[in-house]
Amino acid sequence: MGLYKFKAKTNDGSVINDVLEADNKKAVARYLQEKGFFPLSITAEKRKTDSRGYLKTKINRADLVIFHRQLAEALKGGLSLVKSLELSYKQTENNQLRMVIGEIKGQLQKGQSLSTALSQYPEVFDSLYIGLIKAGESGGMLDASLERIANYQEKDQALINRIKTAMAYPLAMLCIGVGTILFLLLLVIPKFSLLFQDVGSALPLPTRVLMGLSNFFIHWWFIYVPGAVLLTVWFKRYSQTPLGNLWFDKLKLNVFIVGKIIRYEMVVRFTRTLGVLLTNGIPMISALEIAKKAVGNALVSVEIDRLYTEIKSGKGLVEPLSRSLIFPPVVSDLIAAGQEVGSLEQSLQRVADTYEMKVENMLKTATGLLEPVVIMLMGLLVGFIVLAMLLPIFEISGAIK
User: Fold this and answer.
1) Which of 103, 116, 108 is nearest to 16 (CA)?
2) Distance (Å, whole) CA 230 – CA 8
3) Which superfamily is assigned to 2-147 in CATH?
4) d(Cα 159, Cα 161) in Å, to the nearest integer?
C-alpha cells in the first residue's frame, strides 16, 4: 500500500485534488472511474511517517478508540474540528498519538481535509477509518462517522480481548508445565543419574529413556538451540511471503476447535466492517475492498476477491456468498432476509452480533475443555518422570531385601 496524490475532473467540470491510499496507480484510476471522475494526474507521494522515529511502535488500539470517541463528542457539542483536535491533544496520554494529533491539527489549519490529513499516517489510521471519515465529510456527518468508528473499534477490541482472556489460562498452564519438565530434565534428573551409575543390573526402560532425554538436552544444546532459532526465522520469513501467508492462514482455519473460532471471528469482522461502511454510504465495491483488509486473513481475502468480481459483474451479495466455502450458509440466508426488507446494513450488523455470541460460547466451551486436558497432560508427563526415577530405587530396595 502507498499514498497517491491525484487531480481529477468531476461531472460538473470542477477539478479536485486529494490523496488516496491504494496498492498502485491503476487502483487509484479505477477508484476515480467508479466515482465518475476523470483522472488528470496520479503521482506517488512519499509517506511522511517514514522518517518519524516516534511511530516505530504501533499505537495502542484502546488509545485510538478514546481519541475517536472524544473527537465525536466534541463535534456533537458544537466545537469546530480544529478545536476538537486541540481538546483531544490535551486529553491524550499516549505521547506518540499526541504528536500525530498535533500534526493533523496543523495540516487542518493549512486547509487540508481531515481524511487527507489522516491518510498521511497509514501506520496509525488504516483505509477503513479514512474511508469512513471521507464519507462523513462528504455527507456532512463527520461526528456520526467518528462515533461509528469508535463503536466499531470498541466491539472489535472487546472480541479480541475475550479471545485473549479465554486462552490466557490454558497457555499459562502449558508454559508452567513445560518449564517444570525442563527443570526436572536439566537439574533434577542428572543428580539422580549419579546414584544409578554403580547399579550393576540394567535400568528399567522408562528410566533409560528419561536419562537419554536429559543427556540430549544437557549435552546437545548446540544442535537443537540453533536449529530451533533457524526454524523460527525461516517460518517467520516464509509466513510473510504470499504463498506462506496463504498456507498459514488456511492452517489456522482448519485447526480443531480453534479453527472454527477463528472462522467465526472472521465472519464477525467482515460483516461488521461491511455493515458500518454501507451505513456510511460507501458503495458496495469500495466497501468490499476495505473489508478485505480488515479481516486479516489471506484465505478469506481470496474469497472476498471472488465476491468482489461477481458483484462487479452484476450479481448481488447473496448469491456469491451462498456459494462460499469460508462463510457459513446461514450468513447468506440472514443477509438475504435483510435485503428483502431493505435493511442490508442492519442485517449485516445482526449477523455480526449473532456470530460474536457464537464465538463467546465456543470460547467458554473450548476453555472448559482445554484446562483439564492441559492439566491432565502435564500430570501424566510429570508422573512419568517421577515413576521413571523411582523404579530403579524400588528394584534396588527389593534386591537388598
Assistant:
1) 116
2) 50
3) Type II secretion system (T2SS), domain F (1.20.81.30)
4) 5
Residue 254 in grid coordinates: 482448519
pTM of the model: 0.69
343: number of Cβ within 10 Å: 13
Burial of 264 (0-12, 13-18, 19+ CB in 10 A): buried
Encode the chain (401 residues) as per-residue pLDDT tens digits. Answer: 566 777 888 777 777 777 666 667 888 788 777 777 888 888 876 544 444 555 555 677 788 888 888 888 888 888 888 888 888 888 888 888 888 888 888 888 888 888 888 888 877 887 777 877 877 777 777 777 778 888 888 888 888 888 888 888 888 888 888 888 888 888 888 887 777 766 656 778 888 888 888 889 888 888 989 999 999 999 989 888 888 888 888 888 888 778 888 888 888 888 888 888 888 778 888 888 888 877 878 888 888 888 888 888 877 788 888 888 888 888 888 888 877 777 788 888 888 888 889 888 888 888 888 888 888 888 888 888 888 888 887 776 666 55
CB 310 within 8 A of CB 236: no
**DSSP H or E run through 108:** helix 95-109
With beta carbons less than 8 A apart as the criterion, state whether 4 and 25 touch: yes
User: What angle (nearest 5°) sits at the alpha carbon of residue 105, between those of residues 8 and 122?
Assistant: 60
Phi and psi for 255 in degrees, rounded to 5? -70, 140
Q: Which of 357, 349, 295, 286 is nearest to 326 (CA)?
A: 295
CA angle, residues 124, 129, 130, in degrees to nearest 5: 90
Backbone angles phi, psi at 339, to 5 degrees: -70, -35
DSSP code string of 26-58: HHHHHHHHHTT-EEEEEEEE--GGGG-GGGSSP
Domain boundaries, the chain: 2-147, 148-401
